[in-house]
């Protein structure tokens, strides 16, 4: 069972990478550049820095720096200084970057196949994979980068959200994005 499950997930991941790679190459993007762009589109304001991208991708700072330079040159991301701490530079996906991601993520063929599953099958599969990811993160010691809303630091009261770690207010959008400080 373990080997069969691994093979299924590996094959799905390989097909996803292949389809994503093909759409990215049409725009002159390498897979690592697409991964960085996608990450920046789903992370919150605590996680949109060079170091966070480096940590998320598990690559060297130099490799990620070059990757981000390409994305910036192509107009897919922009650097924005933090309004309160000018030492911090945030990496924001531009409108062109969002348009590219809307057209490519998730890949079209994946979406078509997933939509053919019943709503119940989709829910069951999502629940099982979420539990598997959680268990795998705990075992591997790489627990960060979870959805803010599911973090132990996320505090809500009367429709307002606050990060218990930073004591800062969170928008509803912040709570839907991933954060490098995530702790379950």
Describe the protein.
The structure is a single chain. With 184 residues, the chain is of the alpha+beta class. The chain folds into two domains: 1-125, Arc Repressor Mutant, subunit A (Orthogonal Bundle), CATH 1.10.10.10; 141-184, no CATH class. It is built from eight helices and seven strands. The chain has helices at residues 2-25, 31-42, 50-57, 61-73, 95-104, 108-115, 119-140, 172-176; strands spanning 77-81, 89-93, 146-147, 154-157, 160-163, 169-170, 178-179. A three-stranded antiparallel β-sheet has the order 4-5-6. A two-stranded antiparallel ribbon has the order 1-2. A two-stranded antiparallel sheet has the order 3-7. A hairpin with a 7-residue loop joins β1 and β2 (89-93). α2 packs across α4 (61-73) and α3 crosses α4. The longest helix has 24 residues, at 2-25.
Tags for this entry?
184 residues; alpha+beta; Arc Repressor Mutant, subunit A; 2 domains; three-stranded antiparallel sheet; two-stranded antiparallel ribbon; 7 strands; 55% helix
| Estimated helix fraction | 55-70%
Question: Runs with pLDDT <50, length 5+?
Answer: none
Beta-strand percent range: 5-15%
CATH topology of the largest domain: Arc Repressor Mutant, subunit A
First and last CA, distance: 28 Å
Mean pLDDT: 90
Reading side by side through the largest sheet, how are the strands ordered? 4-5-6
Q: Helix segment count?
A: 8
């Amino acid at each position: 069972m373990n080997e069969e499950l691994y093979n299924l997930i590996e094959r799905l991941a390989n097909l996803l990478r292949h389809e994503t790679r093909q759409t990215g190459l049409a725009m002159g993007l390498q897979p690592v550049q697409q991964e960085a762009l996608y990450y920046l589109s789903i992370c919150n304001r605590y996680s949109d820095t060079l170091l966070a991208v480096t940590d998320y991708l598990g690559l060297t700072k130099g490799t990620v720096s070059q990757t981000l330079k390409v994305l910036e040159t192509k107009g897919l991301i922009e650097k924005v200084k933090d309004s309160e701490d000018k030492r911090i530079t945030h990496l924001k996906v531009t409108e062109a970057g969002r348009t590219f991601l809307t057209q490519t993520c998730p890949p079209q063929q994946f979406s078509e196949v997933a939509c053919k599953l019943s709503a119940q099958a989709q829910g069951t599969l999502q629940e099982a994979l979420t539990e598997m990811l959680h268990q795998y993160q705990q075992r591997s010691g790489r627990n960060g980068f979870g959805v803010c809303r599911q973090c132990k630091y996320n505090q809500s009261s009367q429709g307002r959200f606050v990060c218990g770690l930073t004591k800062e207010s969170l928008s509803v959008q912040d709570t839907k994005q991933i954060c490098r400080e995530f702790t379950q």
